[in-house]
Amino acid sequence: DTGVSQNPRHKITKRGQNVTFRCDPISEHNRLYWYRQTLGQGPEFLTYFQNEAQLEKSRLLSDRFSAERPKGSFSTLEIQRTEQGDSAMYLCASSFRTGGGDTQYFGPGTRLTVL
Amino acid sequence: GNSVTQMEGPVTLSEEAFLTINCTYTATGYPSLFWYVQYPGEGLQLLLKATKADDKGSNKGFEATYRKETTSFHLEKGSVQVSDSAVYFCALSHTNAGKSTFGDGTTLTVKP
User: Fold this and answer.
1) How many Cα neighbours within 13 Å face the side chain of A75?
2) Are B99 and A44 a contacting pair at CB < 8 A?
3) Measured between alpha carbons, how far is A31 from A51 in angstroms, rounded to an integer?
4) pLDDT tens digits for A23-82?
5) Phi and psi at residue A42, in whole multiples of 5°?
6) Does the CB of B91 have a partner CB in chain A at under 8 Å?
7) How far is CA A10 from CA A49, A93, B67, in A?
8) B53 — contact with chain A (CB < 8 Å)?
C-alpha cells in the first residue's frame, strides 16, 4: 500500500491555458474523489467515481472542468481555459465502500497557480 | 444541505494543556463523523471517526464522541504536545452519498 499519489505536485500556468492533473488511488479502493481547497478553508467536494462511473458532480464543477476514471483505476482532472479563480490546492482521495461510512485517504494534493 | 461548523481559530496552548475543538453539524439522517489532521507541509490524514450516535472515536490520545442530541463531535485531548501543532478538520459523510463535507479547519499551535 503506497497511498494515494498525485502528479504534478505544483503547477503554474497562465490564464487561458489548459491543465491536467493525475491521481493514482490506493489499488484496492473502488471510490475516488476530487476536492478543491483554498487557503483558510476546508476541502470542497468536486466529484467522485465508483469504479469507472462518475456518480456525482458538484455545482462548483463548471463546464471547464472534466474528470475521468478510465477502467476504474487512476483519474484525471482537466481544467480548460484556466482563470485566476481556479488557483487552489486540488486534492484526490480514495476509499473502499463499506457499510460503516467511507474512510477517505487523501493524497498530497496538486497546487495550481494561475497567473 | 449538509454543513459542518468548527470553532474559529487559531488556538494557542502551552504543552500539556487540555484541548477542546468544537464541531457541530447539520445533516439529514445518520452521517458518519470524522476528524482529519493536516500537519505542516503534509496531506490530510484521518485522525478518528465515529459511525453512529454515542460512538467514541479515539486515536493518539485524541477523543471525540458522536452526540446526536446536540449534533456535535467535539475533539478533545487531555495533554497536548508540541508535535500536535497542525490544522484539524471536522467532516461528515453519508455512506450512500460518498462525498464528505468539511469544516473550515482549526489551527492549533502548541508552545513548549
Assistant:
1) 33
2) no
3) 6
4) 999 998 989 999 999 988 999 999 999 999 998 899 878 899 999 999 889 999 999 999
5) -80, 165
6) yes
7) 24, 17, 40
8) no
A20 vs A67: CA distance, rounded Å: 9
Instruction: Go through chain A and tell me how many residues it has.
Output: 115
Does the CB of A107 have a partner CB in chain B at under 8 Å? yes
Rounded to whole angstroms, how far apart are CA atoms B14 and A40?
A: 23
> Inter-chain contact B97–A56, Cβ cutoff 8 Å?
yes
Give the residue ranges of DSSP H helices in chain A: none
Closest CB to A102 among B36, B95, B105 = B95
Point out which residues pair with A110 in neighbouring strands. A90
**Inter-chain CB proximity B89 and A106 less than 8 Å:** no
